[in-house]
Amino acid sequence: MRFSSIPGLAETKQKLVSSVKNNHLAHALLFHGPEGSATLPMALGLASFLYCENPTETDSCGTCAACHRLDKLILPDLNFAFPQIARSKKEVETEKIDDMANWRKFAMEQPYGNIHDFVVAMGMQKKQLNISKDEARKIIQTLSLKSFEGGFKTMMIWGVEHLHPSAANSLLKIIEEPPEKTLFLLITNDPEKLLTTILSRTQKVFVRGFSDQEIAEHLVSEFQLAGEKANQIAILSDGSMREAYRLRDEVKDQQVQLIRQWFLKCAGLKVHEIFPLVTDFDKSDVESQKSLILTGLFVLREILLKRLSVEDLLRTQDEDRVFIEKISKVLITEEDVPTIYQKFNEAYYHLERNINAKFVLTVLLLDVLKIAQNKQRNGR
Ligand SMILES: [Zn+2]
Known about the structure:
Blueprint: H1 10-21, E1 28-32, H2 39-51, H3 65-71, E2 78-81, H4 89-94, H5 99-109, H6 115-121, H7 133-144, E3 153-158, H8 165-176, E4 182-188, H9 196-199, E5 203-206, H10 212-223, H11 227-237, H12 241-267, H13 271-283, H14 286-307, H15 318-330, H16 336-352, H17 357-378
Parallel strand pairs: 1-4, 1-5, 2-3, 3-4
The structure holds zinc ion.
Zinc ion binds at residues 52-54, 60-61, 64, 66-67.
């Protein structure tokens, strides 16, 4: 994660970069901010900047070996600790639980996620998480070893408010006086829950919530969301990127619903019900129209995989699967998918070139209808 992958927050990035340059970086930093803020991304951005072999004035390069390893969170000198549930050794072995692999996946896929997302991602049922005294012992042990690459070692503790008091107490000394070339990056959305003895030993880095503009711009550039929709989501998200992602998924779900209606109505040859859909489509802005066509292409891909019985590759959830099973039986054979796929692609191409949306969609739906009609006539 580079600083540039984090939307906005220029002032925080600049402050961190100048602390590094002026040698003012403390040996224990506490990244704190509201839920859905960039606390974890910012700590990862700093780690990338520090370990990068070829940093620019303001950021890591993103291309050197260290940056690549850091992107996958497998840099040997960057260690992680996070809340866990108590498990016996036997449980870990028999269930083949790889907490570290799960953590990496979570941190890479949901860097703005909260503790609830983490519990779900880690496949935990119970919620009594903590960073135990045993874990604290491991942290101390890890930091007592020499660095792999001869540089400094970093210990990143995510969800540090979940330190068990006994663990916190045993870490006090090492946070106060860490071994040489050791950096602690502590991360929390809830600093009030931390023991004051830990708080007082850290340099605080406050990561504010995102501005509406930062969220909106990110949604447009990252997910090609229409400007108007992005602005609405930004306002509702109230500074939380986690919430913005969730709302964006809802928008995507609505589009999948709409595409499903199209396919079902085409399959049922319900011509009189299809044209009101064209009118609705025509009313939305061009970015939403393009995004809807992309959703259509995604659904077609899933139908094809279903028809080819390559179900391992299907990405859709349960409810969608039922739809895809149904539609791939009645509407489309695998011979038809490439043709329909091409029609959707053409529609996208024409929308991009500002051809009238009503016209583009009418042509597209007539094409799909024709295929559905042929299929039913031939009883395929
Ligand atoms: Zn680099």
